[in-house]
Amino acid sequence: MTDDVDATAPLIKLTDVGKRYGNVIALRGVSLSVAGGEVTCVLGDNGAGKSTLIKIVSGVHRPDEGSFEVGGEPVSFASPRDALSRGIATVYQDLAVVPLMPVWRNFFLGSERRRGFGRIDVGFMRRTTKSELLEMGIDLRDVDQPIGTLSGGERQCVAIARAVYFGAKVLILDEPTAALGVKQAGVVLRYIVQARERGLGVIFITHNPHHAYPVGDRFLILNRGRSVGYHDKRDITRDQLTALMAGGTELEQLAHELETVSAGAARELTEEAKDLGVTPTDD
Ligand SMILES: Nc1ncnc2c1ncn2[C@@H]1O[C@H](COP(=O)(O)OP(=O)(O)OP(=O)(O)O)[C@@H](O)[C@H]1O
Ligand SMILES: [Mg+2]
Q: Is residue 123 part of a domain?
């Protein structure tokens, strides 16, 4: 079989991409290039256009403007299935799992391994799930336990291991750490690094520069649908990233507003305490 895909081309290349929903311009003039063995973080506030961007890459939407290439070849995906067939796998925050089904069934959901007469090969799927998870450093005692009993972080990890097993070249993670505590977020971040070490190109969407900075090789910062920065890690510090993401002056303004609000609230509480005849303490 000849492979006509240019091996030196980036896995994903978006150039000046734009997307509108009716009158709303969700994305304008955004460019992005993703190579294997690299983590690209997409940061931005609510409504910045992060999900719109990855929906273009994952075949849910088509861009209205700009070009989209996969492995150096222009593409126009009609559906997420087209993207998946080119090795682009997406793990959504609200994972499509069946909570009462065992971990191994969820791992193979929609891609069950069969033996003769159409019977599913339970033994193979159990063993494979166990060993694939182990390879990612997840030691589950029992792959027969319902996936609903795993923690949110573990479930994200199962989804990542699954995408890796089924041959993803590009792994897109939409806010995988948003709902997690510090420890679990750390576990997910570790698997992001592992996916990179296996040579995948990872696109990691997050609100949180403290999650992005340690694992990211490149950072795309969006604000109201536009790119406000696209940097290699060596060109940007964590503080600069945080400031860019929050839109520097906007963050200062917010800090000021919060101070004003809390000063007002403290005053009100003191008044209230006086009315109630309570003496406020000094702590
Ligand atoms: N299906 C849609 N129809 C109309 N407007 C949409 C649609 N999806 C998104 N938008 C709008 O496009 C803009 C970008 O939305 P998008 O979901 O890409 O942002 P986001 O960065 O993912 O935000 P969040 O952090 O809240 O997930 C927003 O103004 C949003 O209201
Ligand atoms: Mg979103």
A: no
C-alpha of residue 268 to centroid of ligand 2, in Å? 37
Pocket of ligand 1 (CB under 6 A): 21, 24, 26, 44, 46-52
Question: CB of 25 within 8 A of CB of 17?
Answer: no
> How many Å lie between the centroid of ligand 1 and the Cα of residue 241?
22
Domain assignment present for residue 117? The answer is no
> What pTM was computed for the model?
0.81
Distances (CA, A) of 239 to 58, 76, 178, 208, 209: 31, 38, 20, 12, 9
Q: Tell me which residue range forms the domain holding 256.
A: 248-283
Whether residue 174 sits in one domain with residue 90: yes
Residue 130 lies in a domain: no
74 DSSP β-pair partners:
69
Q: Each residue of 93-123: pLDDT tens digit?
A: 666 667 788 999 989 987 888 887 888 899 9
Strands (E), the chain: 12-21, 24-34, 38-44, 65-70, 73-74, 88-91, 170-174, 201-206, 218-223, 226-232
Q: What's the alpha-carbon Rg for the chain, to the nearest Å? A: 23
- Whether the CA torsion 33, 34, 37, 43 is positive or negative: it is positive
Tell me whether residue 18 is in a domain: yes
